[in-house]
Hints:
Elements: H1 2-10, E1 14-20, E2 26-31, H2 40-53, E3 61-65, H3 69-80, E4 84-87, E5 100-101, E6 108-116, H4 120-131, E7 135-144, H5 149-154, E8 159-165, H6 166-175, H7 181-193
Parallel strand pairs: 3-4, 3-6, 6-7, 7-8
Antiparallel strand pairs: 1-2, 4-5
Helix pairs in contact: 1-6, 2-3, 6-7
Amino acid sequence: MSWISIELYKRGMVKIGRFKLSSGIESPFYIDMRRLYMYPDLARTIILELTRRVKLDDIDVVVGVATAGIPLATYVSCLTNKPMAYVRVEKKNHGTSSLIEGDVTGLRTLVLDDVSTTGSSILKAVEAIWEAGGIPVRVAVLVDREQGAREALASRGIELYRLITAREVFRDLYAHGLINETIYRELLEYLDKYSAGGTVNQGVLPG
């Protein structure tokens, strides 16, 4: 699947540099999957690949996590003919004061977001679905930064499906000469340092 890594990089969705995350941690890379929908053909191809990898036959409704998960869920809904709902950032202060748009009561859900890091925003969405009477079955993302989301969800009995991991992206970019060895090693060191549990596990350069 190296073509995905290359397309994301060439179209500016994977950026190398210095970026401050919402956690306050400085990261040597940034993944901006919101740009994907500027390229409809690529978006359809990538999201079709995601739907092939995720079990959907027991899913009643797909649920997007605001904000980036909403267009992803819209694509998946249209491609699979599954009903769609989404979780708001916060409850409305008018009308039904609902946190979830759409009815998930008693329904088995696939939760969708673009990128997973620690999983905190996804877990909030999962909690909202439970509170609304829905049944979160699994979660799927396009890119997993591998910084705890999979483990956090597993502790609640929910499996995380990901199309590609950050480590796989950078391995592909290095293998195709799009980043040099110094940058690649720096990226691996960062991923090792901030991976779940913070265990250092040096990656091996592809030969």
